[in-house]
Amino acid sequence: MSLIKSISGIRGTIGGRSGDNLTPLDIVKFTAAFGSMMLAENSTGNKKIVVGRDGRISGAMVNNLVTNTLVGLGIDVVDLGLSTTPTVEVAVKAEGAIGGIIITASHNPKEWNALKLLNSEGEFISADWGKKVLELAETADFNYASVDKLGTVIADDTYLQKHIDAILAYPLVNKEAIAAKNFKVVVDAVNSTGATYVPALLKALGVEQVIVLNEEVNGKFAHNPEPLPQHLTQLTNEVIKQKADLGIAVDPDVDRLALVCEDGSMFGEEYTLVAVADYVLQHKKGNTVSNMSSTKALKEITLKHGGEYFPSSVGEVNVVEKMKAHNAVIGGEGNGGIIVPDFHYGRDALIGIALFLSHLAGHKNGVKSLRSNYPDYFISKNKIELEKSIDVVTLFKKIEDKYKKNPINTEDGIKIEFDNDWVHLRTSNTEPIIRIYAESDFESKANNIATKLMQDIKEFIA
C-alpha cells in the first residue's frame, strides 16, 4: 500500500494506516491545505472551487470528504459529480472559480485514488504552490469557518453538454465531414466516466454507430485501466468482429486517448498526438511541445510544417509551461495526452477524438492507411523499482559521466542521444521507480538500448 505526495497532488491506495495510505484523515488534511492556500492567494473574495470525480469505487467517499472539508473552510463547492479531468478543467475557468479538485488516480488500478489540484485557470498548480500545499498539510494549521460562514454545495450536471458544445464550436472540428463518413466506432470505456462522455460526444459529432465496451460506471475496471496494447485485446477483437472503422480507448478520467485501426492493430499511443498535431499544423502554422519521453516523430512532423519543436520535462504542468513559453499551437505527451491551447491548457481525450475524426474524415482511406503516413519508431518502456536508500542524484551523475561524449539533457532526469536514437531515465512522479524509455527505428534496437542502461543502473547501485 502506498501514499505519494507530489507537487501536483496526493495519490494513494484506499485503506490502511493514515500517513501510509490515502485514508480519510489524509484526504481531509490535504483538501484543507489546498483550500486554505487558494483562499489565501485570492484577493477578490471569490470562494468557489469546482470538484469532479471519475467512476472509481472510492470516488463517492472521497468526494464527500473533499466537499465537506471545503464547506468547513467557508468555500462554495460546484460539484460536477461523475465527470472527467478535462471537463473539470473547463468548468473551473467557466465558473470563474479560484481552483478545482479532480478526484481520480488516472490510469492506476481500482484500489488507488487521488486529488489532482487546479488553479483558477483550470490548470495544474505550479511546483511552488504544490510545495506550499504540502508544507501546510504537514502543519495542519487550518482556520475553519464559523457556523454562519460555512460554504455551500451546488450540484451541477450541465458540464457534459457544455464541454461537448465547446468542442463542436472549435473551428478545426469538422462535424459535417465526420457525419458524412458514417463511421462505426467501438469504445472501451473501462467502467468509468468515458462510458458517458465519449458516446455522447460521438453522437454529437454525427457518429451514429457506437458500440461501448465496459460501459457500466462502477469502478470495477474490466482490465488494467492504463490504455496500453496489452490491456486492450478486448477492444481490438471487437473492432475486427464489428467490422468497425476505429476503436477508441480512454483511461478512467478521460485525459488519455488510444486508438485502434480497422484491422485490430494499434495506432500507437505515441502517434495519437502526432496525428492530431499533423492535422492542426495543416490549418494553423506554429510550434509544438511534447515531453522528452515522447516520440521524435512529433518533431519531424513539426519541422515538415515549418514550425519549431521544443521538448519539456515530463508532467502536464511542465508541458503547459513550455507551450506557453514558445506559443505552441498543439502539444501534449506521448501517452495519448493531447493539449489544444486555444481550447484549454489540459490533456483532453474528448477534443482529441473530435480532431482525430476530423483528420480521418479528410483522408481518402481508413485509419491504417492514415497511420502509414507517419514513421515507424519504437519506444521501449521499462522501469526499475527503487529502494528508499538509493541516491538517484549520485546514480544519474555516474551514468552522465559514463556517457559524457554523447549529447545529454539533464532538465528532467537524464536523456542521452545516440545518433538517431535516444534513452531517457527519470524518477516517476507517481511511483517509487526509475522509468527507462528508449526510442529507435527498430524495436530490437530500442530494447537493447534500454537493457544496456538498466544494466548500468544495476551495476552502479550494486
UniProtKB/TrEMBL annotation:
UniProt keyword annotation of Metal-binding present: yes
Molecular-function GO terms, alphabetical: phosphoglucosamine mutase activity
EC number: 5.4.2.10
Gene3D superfamilies: Alpha-D-Glucose-1,6-Bisphosphate, subunit A, domain 3, Alpha-D-phosphohexomutase, C-terminal domain
Domain named Alpha-D-phosphohexomutase alpha/beta/alpha: residues: 8-142, 163-264, 271-372
Entry keyword set: Isomerase, Magnesium, Metal-binding, Phosphoprotein
NCBIfam families: Arch_GlmM
Protein name in UniProt: Phosphoglucosamine mutase
Origin organism lineage: Bacteria, Pseudomonadati, Bacteroidota, Chitinophagia, Chitinophagales
